[in-house]
Every structure is written in structure tokens, then in C-alpha cells.
Amino acid sequence: MSLLIGRDLTKVYRTDGQEVHALRGVSLEVAAGDYVAITGPSGSGKSTLLQLLGGIDRPTAGAVELLGTPLETLGDGALTRLRLLRLGFVFQRFHLLPVLTARENVELPMAEAGLTRRERATRARELLAYVGLGHREGHRATQLSGGEMQRVAIARALANRPALLLADEPTGELDATTGAQVLELFDRINRDGATILVVTHDEQLAGRTQRVVRLKDGRVVEC
Amino acid sequence: MRLAWAFRQLRRHSLRTGLAVSGIAVAAALLLDMVMLSGGMESSFEHMLLSRGFQIRLAPKGTLPFDTEATLGDARELVARLRLDPAIAAVGPVLATSVYARVRDSLLTLVGYGVDPLGQGIYQVTAGRDLARGDSLGLLVSRRTAARTGWRLGDTVTLLGRLDPQAAVAAVTRRFIVRGEADWLYDSRDDLSVGAAIESIQGLGRFPAGDRASLVMVKVRDDRAVDSVARRLAAGLPRVEVHSVAQLVRQFRTRLTYFRQLSVILSTISLLVAVLLVGTILTITVNERLGEIAALRAIGVSRPHVVAQVLAEGGLLTLSGAVLGLGLGLVTARYLDAILTSFPGLPTAIRFFVAQPVALARAGMTFLLTGTMAGTYPAWLAARAPIATTLRAEAE
Questions:
Q1: Which residues of chain A lie closer than 8 angstroms to B12, CB-CB?
Q2: How far apart are CA B122 and CA B48, in angstroms?
Q3: Backbone phi and psi for residue B128, each to the nearest 5 degrees, phi listed first
Q4: Which domain holds residue B27?
């Protein structure tokens, strides 16, 4: 059964009075347990596709269905709640809160979901240990290296046990060594049962996935 | 967690936050001082008038108490009549005039109060003893008079009256024995005051024949009956001006209209300044953190929670400024009060800046609420920022 279905997705932006066709009728299905890479040159629509599939943006045309729920039927509040409980996001620039510690960053989605302080703390510690940063839980995000920040971000994305993990250029800001560590972590997460959809221009990362979807000029050229 | 998070966000840019809090503190101090000023004089005036419990004043027709040198005639008869009224607990006639004393080579001008110890409401004995009924030799002096003259308890002293200012010759002299020291209710900081039996002071002043009084103070048994007793006295004594303390306070308030208008304007300005400071700081902060906020929204933090977080930061800024401003305002008020109360002729009991807890609490809540709500616009900005567009802009 498909976890995520994107049908004929089209996205048109208006910039300075001009129309930019970021996506032109892209369709995609992701099943439970899949590890899928979306790749392509810069400007091919990779991040736009990920944002539409993750409910961060609305398509100009087409539809997205997550766990059987059409996203276009949801208002902002319901969509936000869906992202909180069913999706996990990892960004290129980590986007951790610099004033919070590693543990507090991981706890954040759980606090939003209404877990108790004890539940949050226990799970955050587990996740940080899982990503190899149990010894850094009390450090502020600004005190972590790039690779450590990304691992904390991954732990945060797993906080509410999401059905699908979405990552946008997760190694884009990392050097080769730390990037490789993050890729190994993704492999492990997928082996442990998580479904992952990752946008990347890194062919090494794309090669580690089960399936690669290549985009060019907003269209799928290889699937 | 939200407040701790807000605190850390503000501390992230400590210099900026410090400057903003300082500005908010100044605004808060200004608001505090204006609230204290707007009702301060009126409050201290009323407190002064009621400090001895006398709620009604009788003065010569068409005058306010101690406003002119006019006096009431047949004062003893008036007082006796008032004392027969069952609604009245005490009656205190007061006669005020200038008297003089020679101290070494100088001639001091003193404020001489003639009082009836049976019912008086203008002094409080602080040392020695009060005047006894019928004690025509007894004298009470203020602490300042005692310090200036060197008079001590038990001393026999001479007061002069009806002074010819050109010849510096007094038409009347009289000896008194200092019985005690007293604080005089209506004294200004420069006054040198003495008090004696009203008949004794009568002889030292330039008054028309007959027993006189500048003022008669009346204490009503039941506070709820003050207005009705005042109306009854006014109807029954058509040649006398009857004022309840409430009426005097209302008239005083009318004279302070410009003060109050100024206070309201400056209070409004202070609130506006606080709103602008908080709003500006939060708008800058939110704009700097739009990418961070978009990421939070992407991972599932709701709009209301984003708004609440920004408002919490605004609230914390305002609260910090308000606490600092409280201290600054109280110090400033004391300093300004000292300047204003040094105005010559002003009774020392009058204060310009008076802390009235209810008014201050109300102003404080208004300030906190207004400052917190100043974060509404930046909170709206934060909550409405389009997630995808913002994240794209961050990535570029």
C-alpha cells in the first residue's frame, strides 16, 4: 500500500510578473519502508516536489495523498498537525533552535504534540543515543559541529515516530566525511523500518537508496 | 518552556535587549510618575484635611479656609451652638495671625494659632504636654520654632503683637510658658509656628472687636452623615461658608485640571513609546529568524504557538522594563517631589507624587498588557510567513 501518492503535481510561481513552472505534472508513489532519492540539476524542481509532498506548500494543480488523506482537503491547522505527527523533516541548513540544547531541540516536536516532560526527556535521550550524540544532549546547538547538528536534526525528525522522513539536501552543508556519517545514519534508519524520501544532488547518496527519481525542468526523466 | 525559551532568545542579543529594556524602563518610570502625580496632590490634600478626623470646615462667607484674613465673628457662640448638635462629635475653632518674638538681635515673624484644646484638629503634640482648658499662659511651639529660638519646655517667653512695621514697635506683648512641642498640620517648611489659647492669640492680632475665628473645624460622628450635616449647617448658618472636605477636594481638583491633563498626555506617550520599542525589537528579531520560524512551522509547530512565543518575548521585555522602571520611577518621583514641595508657602503635608496602590496596579497592568500586545504585529508576521518561500529564500 502506498504511504504517499503525488498525482500530476504542477507548481507555478510568479516572480517579478513572470511565471516560473517549477513542476510540470509530476507523479510519484512511496510505499512503506521505501528509501527514495529525488535527484536532478539545480532548478529541476526537487525541493519544490518535496515541499508539495510534505504539505509545506500547495500545488497549483494535482493532488497529494498521505496515508489515504488528500492534503488539499486539510486546512492549515490540520495540515500542520499532520506534519507534526506523521512526517519528519530534515533540512539542508539543519534549522535547529540555537538557544536550545540538543535535547531540547529534539523535545520540541514532542512538546508540540503534548507529551509529558518525562516522556519527552526519555525519548529525546533515546534518540540522541541512537544518532550517537547521547553525550552532547546538554550542549546548545551553536556548540555542535555541522555533522552533529544534522544528526540532532534527524533525531528531532524522528521524535514523533513519523510514517515518513523527508530530507532536503541533508548533506548539502557538510564535508565529505561528516556527510558520509549522516548517510550511514539514514541507511540505518531505513533498515530499522523508516520510510525515507530524500532530495539530493549528491550521486553518492542517491546511489545508496533503493530507487532514484530524476527530474529535469520540472519533469520526471527517470524513475 | 516557552518563557525559558523567550528569555534565551532575548539574551541572544544582549546589547540590543538591554537597550530596549532600558528604553521600556524609562517609559514605565514616566508612566509611574504621571500616575503618582495625577492624583498625588489631591490625595495628599484630602489626607491632610482628614488627618485629625474633622470632615467639615466653616469659614467667613465667600472664602475658603485660610484663603483671606477675614474672620468669623461671635466665634464662641457659634462653637457652643455647634457643640449642642447631636450629630457633631467635636468642634475646633482656629484663629491665625502673625506674632513676633525677639531672638538675640532679630525679630522673628511667627505664625500664631489660637486654638481650643477641647476640640482641635490642626496640631499633634510631639513632646511635653498639650494645652489645658483655661490655660491662658500655655504655648505650644513647632520643632522648627524651638530650634530657631532656642526655647525649651518650661521656658517663659514673650510674644509681640500688632507690630508697627515701620517703627518695629509692638503694641502688645504677652508672656507665655512653653508647655510642649507640636507638629502643625498646615505648616510650610519655612513656617515658624506657635499655638496658644484662642483668647490669648486674639489679643495679639489686629482683629475686629469680639471673639473671632479664622476657621471652625467640625467632626461629625458618622462619616456617612457628613454631606447631610454640611447641608444642614449651610442652611442654618447663612452668613458662614460651610465646606465638607469632599467639596474642598473637588474644588482643589478643579484647580489641578491642567496637571491632570498633562499627566494623561504624558502617560499616553509613555505607553506609546513602550509599544514602539517592543514592536520594533520584536519585528527586527522575527525578521532575523524567519527561516528558523518557517522550519518550526514545517516540522509541525502551529501558528498559535508561534504567535504565543513571540508574545511571550514581548511580555518578558515589557516585564523586565517595568520592573526596572518601577525602581527608576520611585527614585525620580522622590527627587521631583522634593523639588516641587520646596515651593514657598506649601504645607509640608502636601505631596505631589503619591503612590496609590490601586491606581499603580491598574497602570502597571495596562503597561504590561499594552507592551505584550505590541508584539501582535511581529507575531502575525511570524505566523503568516509562507513556509516554502521562506525556506527557499534561506537555501539560496
A1: 98-99
A2: 10
A3: 75, -145
A4: 2-48+255-395
